[in-house]
Amino acid sequence: MRRSRRRGSLARWTGQTIARPLRRFTLLPRSLLARTFLLLAGLLTASVLAWSGIYSWLEQGPRAQQAAQIIISVINLTRASLVSADPQRRLELLTELSMREGLRIYPDGDIPGFQPMAGDRSLATIEQELRRRLDPRTRIVVSKGLQSGLFVSFSIADEEGVDDYWLMLPRSRIERPLALEVIGWGTAALLLALGGAYLIVRRVTRPLAAMKRAARAIGRGERPAPLPVQGAEELAEVASAFNQMADDLARNEDERALILAGISHDLRTPLTRLRLDMELAGLDPDTVRDMSADIDDMDKIIGQFLDFARITTGEEPVEGDLASLVLEAAQAYARHDKPVLLGRVDPLPALRFRPLAIRRCLNNLIDNALRHAGEDRQIDLLCRLEDGEARLEVCDRGPGIPPEQVDRLKRPFTRLDSSRTGQSGAGLGLAIVDRTMRAHGGRFDLLPREGGGLIARLSLPLPAGSTARD
Length: 470
Known about the structure:
Blueprint: H1 10-14, H2 32-84, H3 90-101, E1 104-107, E2 115-117, H4 121-133, E3 140-144, E4 149-158, E5 161-169, H5 180-219, H6 233-280, H7 285-309, E6 318-320, H8 322-335, E7 340-345, E8 351-353, H9 355-373, E9 379-386, E10 389-396, H10 406-409, H11 429-439, E11 443-448, E12 454-461
Parallel strand pairs: 7-9
Antiparallel strand pairs: 1-5, 2-3, 3-4, 4-5, 6-8, 9-10, 10-12, 11-12
Helix pairs in contact: 2-4, 2-5, 5-6, 6-7, 8-9, 9-11
């Protein structure tokens, strides 16, 4: 019976499954500056290597002709000297050629220590040129070992016949080594080109870096200085468009804050008249109490609108002691017999922050903890120095918040349909805290507390080189 084939599976052999695809690792840098510079450096290096190859290929023919002319001249002079010299003095002549010129002549087939090796393309070109201009039987052999050099065959004809010989020349006679000056100038030219490429790329990426810093400042609720409209036309247009966008966003923010503040302020006037009319109407105490609670809730909602509108307006950051602010908040709640206990307080360096905005955040978080954890349960207030951050924590033993709902609850006008958030308020409390922390360059986290409850953490970065106070 033929068995059906099935696809292979790692799980069948290992008993394990691959939870997610392997991540791609790349050696390319992440920044535009480094990537563009590497691209230009690669192109310049490839261009230099290509031109070097082209130059070497174009120079091969003229160099072979020059080397062949030198060899022909040496062979002709050597042959003429041997033929015209007195036979008794030929040995003396060969010795003198060897001592002064480095030339040696051997009979064909009688070369001690001869170890031929394969030649290169340049020697083949020289050999072809010698065969064309000197003798069709001319051969060139490169030897290593004791007899290291370039051997060229030639013949001497006389009345008795033709004798074949080998003429050994030092390779330096025909090979021109690459001069260090050429390498130095080539390297200098390459480095100069790479330096120019870096400056060009830097001029392109510098405005982008400035734009990135300005965009992050806008995200924190700040108003950065306008970007300089200069440089290349494209970059100048982008900077101009970014400045226009920043101005539009600032104008919209001012108008929104003005509208919210105006509406909230105007709504409090009829609420005050309504409270006064209610007290003068002679209603029963229970009805007055219920109506007064409703008016208080409406007044708190209006207060939240005002707080949300003036997060980044009306107060400038000042240098202060964050630990003292936490201590004052704990003392204020203790005076009203609220179960707010000040726990760990680390000495912190001086920080720049908006005191009223941070105090408003602490009050929102403490009120939220008291409302949902119960006023009979202890609320812990901490001020810690960890991981280069100043962290303020409000810890309660309430029902907590599901982790998947944390990000949604930081949005304006959002409430959790459970006992944690209740039904009062406009859903702006956590949004105010989150927006305030982002305006300070910090972070707002809602974390589950060990043993049950919630940790509301405010994290502010410490300035570089700061030291804690004693």
